[in-house]
Design brief:
With 450 residues, this protein is an all-alpha fold. Helix content is 74%, strand content 0%. It is built from 15 helices and no strands. Helix 1 (47-78) runs antiparallel to helix 4 (140-168), helix 8 (265-281) runs parallel beside helix 13 (386-418) and helix 11 (331-351) packs antiparallel against helix 14. The longest helix is centred in the C-terminal third of the chain and has 33 residues, at 386-418. It is globular, with a radius of gyration of 22 Å.
C-alpha cells in the first residue's frame, strides 16, 4: 500500500498521488458523546473525493430511474415477465465481461480518463433510451441492445471509480469513505424506485430516461474536475507487475488478477465472504411468495414493498450510524462478524410468522450488509497494490452483480422444494456456519488489521 507522501515544491501533494496517513495514524482527535455514533465525514474534507462522492449522490437516484423504467417498458410492450427476465440477463453478461476487462484497463491507463469515457457512454445510452421511448418505437430488441451497452459501460466504469478512492483519501479513512459511498448508493435504491413509481403516471417513461441523462452530465463535470490518476510505478514483487514494461489490457491480465487473488488469502477470503452471504443468504426471489402466502393478511402489495425496502433501509441506517464502526482497525474480524450477523438475521426472517418481525430482521441484515461492504471495500483498497486495484474492483463488481442472481435461482428452487420460510431460515444458518468455518480455517483473515 502506498503511504509515502509525494509533494511538489510547495509541500503539497501532487495531483493524483496517494494521500498519506499522518505520522500518528490519526487525522483528528477521537469524537466524543453522540458525535462518535454518527457517520464519519472526514473523507469529505478532501476536495477530489468530495467531487467523486457528489457525483455518486446525484447518479444514485438517476440510475435507479432507468433501472425501473427499462423493465417497465419491456413489460408494457410484451406483457410478459419472462421477457423482463431475458432483458435482465442480457444486461448481466456484458456487466460481467466488461467488469473484468474494465478492471484491467483501470490498471493500465489514467482512471480519470476512463471514467470520463465510460460516463459519457452511459449518458449517451440514456439519451438513446429517451429517444426510443419518446418516439414510441416499442422495440424490445432495441431495448436489450441499449441495456447491454449501458451495462458494458457501467462494468468498465465501476472498477475505475472504486479503485480511485484509495488515491483520494488516506488509508485510515478508507472505511469511512466506503460508508459514505455505500450509504448514498443504498439511499438511491430506496428513493429512486419510489420516485419512479410516483413520476411514471405523471410524466411518463421518457422523462425518467432524460432525468438520468441530465444527472450523468453532473457526474461528467465532477469527474472532469478530478486530478489525473495515472498508473503508479509498480513496486510489487516479480509476477505482480509488468516485467516487460509494456502496458497490456488483455484477458491474460484478467487471469493475472485472479492469480493475484488466490496468492493473497485476505483478498480471497473477502470475496468468499460476500459470495457466501449473497448466494446462500439473499432470499429476494422468495419475497413474492412470502408476500402472497405467509404475510397475505397484511396485504400482498404492502408486504412485498416492505420486504424489498427493509434491507436497504437498514443499510442506510447503518451508514448514518457508521461512526460506531468505521474507525475499527481489525477489518477481517469486522467482516466475519457482519456476515455471521447477516446469516442469523436472515434465519430470523425465515422463522418469523409476523411481517413486522420479518422486516425488522431484514433491516438488521441491512445494517450487517453495510458493515460488511465497508470493511470488504477497505480490505480491497488497502491489501491490493495500486496496479492491481482496478482488477480487484472488477472482480468485486462481478461478485456483487452475480451473487444475488445465483441466489435467485438457488432460493427459488429450494423454496419450491422446502417451502419459502424453511429455505430462508436454512440459507441464513448455512451462511453463519460457513463463515465461522472459514474464520477458523484461515486465522490470518480474522487477524487482518489495516
Amino acid at each position: 500500500m502506498e503511504t509515502a507522501r509525494n509533494t511538489d515544491d510547495t509541500g503539497e501533494p501532487r495531483q493524483g498521488d496517494p494521500i498519506a496517513d499522518p505520522p500518528d495514524g490519526t487525522a483528528a482527535p477521537p469524537k466524543t458523546g453522540w458525535r462518535r455514533w454518527v457517520m464519519d465525514t472526514r473523507p469529505l474534507r478532501h476536495r477530489p473525493f468530495r467531487r467523486l462522492w457528489t457525483s455518486t449522490t446525484v447518479t444514485a437516484v438517476g440510475s435507479q430511474l432507468t433501472a425501473v423504467a427499462v423493465p417497465k417498458q419491456v413489460y408494457d410492450i410484451t406483457g410478459s415477465s419472462a421477457w423482463v427476465g431475458y432483458a435482465s440477463f442480457a444486461g448481466l453478461v456484458p456487466l460481467v465481461v466488461f467488469g473484468l476487462w474494465g478492471g484491467v484497463v483501470a490498471d493500465r491507463m489514467d482512471r480519470r480518463t476512463l471514467m470520463l469515457v465510460t460516463n459519457a457512454g452511459i449518458a449517451v445510452t440514456s439519451l438513446l433510451f429517451w429517444a426510443q421511448s419518446f418516439a414510441g418505437l416499442d422495440s424490445v430488441p432495441l431495448l436489450i441492445v441499449l441495456l447491454a451497452a449501458q451495462q458494458g459501460f457501467f462494468g468498465m466504469n465501476s472498477p475505475a471509480r472504486n479503485a480511485s478512492i484509495a488515491r483520494l483519501v488516506p488509508a485510515h479513512e478508507l472505511p469511512a469513505a466506503g460508508a459514505l459511498q455505500s450509504t448514498v448508493a443504498q439511499t438511491g435504491m430506496i428513493v429512486g424506485p419510489l420516485l419512479a413509481g410516483a413520476l411514471i403516471p405523471v410524466v411518463g417513461l421518457p422523462a425518467l430516461y432524460l432525468t438520468d441523462a441530465v444527472a450523468l452530465c453532473v457526474t461528467l463535470w465532477a469527474v472532469w474536475r478530478l486530478p489525473a490518476l495515472p498508473p503508479l510505478p509498480s513496486s510489487g514483487p516479480a509476477g505482480e507487475g509488468e516485467p516487460d514494461g509494456r502496458p497490456r489490457a488483455g484477458w491474460r491480465d484478467v487471469a493475472d488478477g485472479f492469480r493475484y487473488i488466490t496468492a493473497h488469502r485476505v483478498l480471497l477470503l473477502s470475496f468468499l465472504a460476500d459470495i457466501i452471504a449473497m448466494v446462500f443468504g439473499m432470499p429476494r426471489a422468495l419475497f413474492p411468495q412470502l408476500a402472497s402466502h405467509t404475510y397475505a393478511p397484511w396485504g400482498e402489495g404492502f408486504a412485498l414493498g416492505l420486504l424489498f425496502a427493509a434491507i436497504p433501509l437498514g443499510a442506510v441506517a447503518g451508514g448514518l450510524l457508521s461512526g460506531t464502526f468505521s474507525r475499527a482497525r481489525r477489518h477481517g474480524l469486522m467482516v466475519i462478524v457482519a456476515v455471521v450477523a447477516w446469516g442469523l438475521a436472515i434465519s430470523g426472517v425465515g422463522l418469523s410468522s409476523s411481517l413486522w418481525w420479518a422486516a425488522a430482521f431484514l433491516a438488521v441484515a441491512g445494517v450487517a450488509d453495510m458493515v460488511s461492504m465497508v470493511f470488504r471495500g477497505a480490505i480491497l483498497q488497502s491489501a491490493a497494490t495500486d496496479h492491481m486495484r482496478g482488477r480487484m474492483q472488477g472482480v468485486f463488481t462481478v461478485v456483487v452483480a452475480g451473487g444475488p442472481r445465483i441466489a435467485d435461482l438457488l432460493h427459488g428452487t429450494a423454496g419450491s422444494l422446502l417451502g419459502p420460510r424453511t429455505a430462508v431460515a436454512a440459507g441464513g444458518l448455512l451462511v453463519a456456519v460457513l463463515m465461522l468455518g472459514l474464520a477458523v480455517a484461515v486465522p490470518d483473515f480474522r487477524r487482518y488489521t489495516a
